[in-house]
Amino acid sequence: MTWLVVTFKMVHVAALMVWCAGLVLLPLALSLHTATPNQQRFNRVRLLTHVAYTQIVTPAAVIAVGAGLLLLFLLGVFEPWFGAKLLAVSLLVVCHAWAGHQVSQIAERRGCYEGAFGVRAALGNVAVMIGILVLVLWKPEIPEEVMPDWLRSPYGARLWVDDPS
């Protein structure tokens, strides 16, 4: 491996650790918010979740995905298991967007927001993360026939990269 690949792998793994930790902790922090007339508690939870989401978790997600895409092209990993991994990562991005929606709901629904699904959401996020980790470490042999034709070939065009096989 070249120093470039090693560097991007380190960046990717470090950003993933921050992103995944944030996706576990954010739902738990959101569940701390209950309908209360205590303005100070409301401000503290709102500030904690807003800063964590916008200034820590989201930048880590962008860096993790960006470094992962660079690694995809540096290492040339064009295999069916990787498509499954990208699908699972897309699900993690949906979990991330849902967490952001919940963070915004605290500000928009002051006094009537109930912390949504706290532990269940965190466990769901962990399940997706474990699924991604299993795919990455196991690299299962997925027959190409499982994938639909529209995923295996460009529409009437030539791939801009050589055949990876």
Automatic annotation (TrEMBL):
Catalysis performed (reactions): protoporphyrinogen IX + 3 A = protoporphyrin IX + 3 AH2
EC number: 1.3.99.-
GO cellular component: plasma membrane
This protein's pathway: Porphyrin-containing compound metabolism; protoporphyrin-IX biosynthesis; protoporphyrin-IX from protoporphyrinogen-IX: step 1/1
Molecular function as annotated in GO: metal ion binding; protoporphyrinogen oxidase activity
Keyword annotations: Cell membrane, Heme, Iron, Membrane, Metal-binding, Transmembrane, Transmembrane helix
InterPro entries with a match to the protein in the record: HemJ-like (IPR005265)
CC cofactor note: Binds 1 heme b (iron(II)-protoporphyrin IX) group per subunit.
Any one biological process term the GO annotation gives: protoporphyrinogen IX biosynthetic process
Chain segments annotated as transmembrane: 12-30, 51-75, 81-99, 119-138
Essential cofactor(s): heme b
UniProt family annotation: Belongs to the HemJ family.
Function: Catalyzes the oxidation of protoporphyrinogen IX to protoporphyrin IX.
Protein name per Swiss-Prot or TrEMBL: Protoporphyrinogen IX oxidase
Organism: Neoroseomonas marina
